[in-house]
Amino acid sequence: MADSALQATDIVGGYGKAVVVQGVSVRLGRKELVALVGPNGSGKSTLLKSIYGLASLFSGTVSWDGRDITRVGPEEKARLGIGYVPQVDNVFPDLRVRENLEMGSYFRRDKAAVLADMEGVFGIFPVLRERREQMASTLSGGERQMLAIGRALMARPSVLFLDEPTAALAPKIVAELFRRVRAIRDSGVSILLVEQHARKALEIADRGYVLVAGKIAMEGGGAEILANEDLKRVFLGAK
């Protein structure tokens, strides 16, 4: 579609020879926040990794801004403006917060703009300004996730993949991080968000997809999915 920032069609993906995702198609519009939710083991993270080139893509196509990037590697995707934040091992623990952010702009040469973008990251995540000279290893779990997202933003992505950014975080931190993710979307970045906190993710999402056993069980507006009583009970939990 013309207004799509990213389109993944008929994705069959997995690990080695094992198929996890079975013919899934998802679309991410410009300046849109789309949530991928579903039970554990449903293939959400595998879908993200298959699209990005971090898992085996057996078949299907991926297009970005009208260009076929199906076989483009992760590093080149990053250069094109597609950022990816993994769930774990997403910061350099032996580097300072500032140095982690600098690593996010390693292929950029516009030093003044890099400094300005770092200030922009500090504006989104004020705690990182306070911690800028601390080693990343000293940060809390929530602060590490903020740093990981901030580092991805330093590459000036137009599309951002977030793989369960709130995993294992306290409820108060989850709510804060979701507010920041929505602010990033409001700044113009398209976000594809994989989340276990399905209800909260759908509350902030423009649209969502529910994956079950590697296939799409439902898609629609976030509020539309939340209003489906069967899906709420079976897939999203009773809370």
Strand content: 25-35%
Number of domains: 1
The CATH homologous superfamily is termed P-loop containing nucleotide triphosphate hydrolases
Secondary-structure content class = alpha/beta
* DSSP helical segment count: 10
Query: What is the third-level CATH name, the topology?
Result: Rossmann fold
First-to-last CA distance: 35 Å
Total number of strands: 10
What does the average pLDDT come to? 92
Biggest β-sheet description: 6 strands, mixed
- Residues in helices, as a percent range: 25-40%
Low-confidence stretches: none
Please identify, by name, the CATH architecture: 3-Layer(aba) Sandwich
The radius of gyration is 17 Å
Q: Going across the major beta sheet, what is the strand order?
A: 6-7-8-3-9-10
Description of the molecule:
- It is built from 10 helices and 10 strands.
- The strands form 2 sheets. The protein has a 6-stranded mixed beta sheet, sandwiched between helices. It has a 4-stranded antiparallel beta sheet with strand order 2-1-4-5, with helices on one face.
- α3 runs parallel beside α6.
- The mean pLDDT is 92.
